[in-house]
Write a structure and sequence with these properties.
5% helix; 1 helix; globular; 6-stranded mixed sheet; 123 residues; disordered N terminus; mainly beta; 4-stranded antiparallel sheet; Immunoglobulin-like
Length: 123
Amino acid sequence: MTTTANTGPAEPTATVSSHVLDAATGRPAAGLHLTLLRRDDHAGDDAAYTVVRTATTDADGRVAGWHTTPGVHRLRFDTGAWFAARGTDTFYPEVEVAFTVADGHHHVPLLLSPFAYSTYRGS
C-alpha cells in the first residue's frame, strides 16, 4: 500500500492585523482599503503573490486578525484613494510592506501622512 502526502495548502496557523493612524490629523484612518498577499514559495526569483484577503479599516482604523500560513507576505495600503477621497494630495499612492509571518500573531501598524509613513512590528 502506498501513502501519499497531502500537498495542498497548509492550514492557517498565523494571524495578521493592522491599525492605520493618520499622523497629520491624529485620527484613525477609517475606510482605508488593505490587501494581504502571500508569496508563492515555489515561484523562484520571479515570486508571484496570491491575495489572502482584502478589507477596509473600521472606524478605529483597524482590521482584525486575518488567518494565513507562515511565509513571506505583503500588506498593501491603498493610500492614494484614501487621501483623494479627503481632497488631499499625497506623494505615496500606495504603501506596501513586506514581512515574514511565522506561527502566531503579527500586527503591522501604519502611521501615515500625505508625505511620509512609518511602520513597525506591533504586538
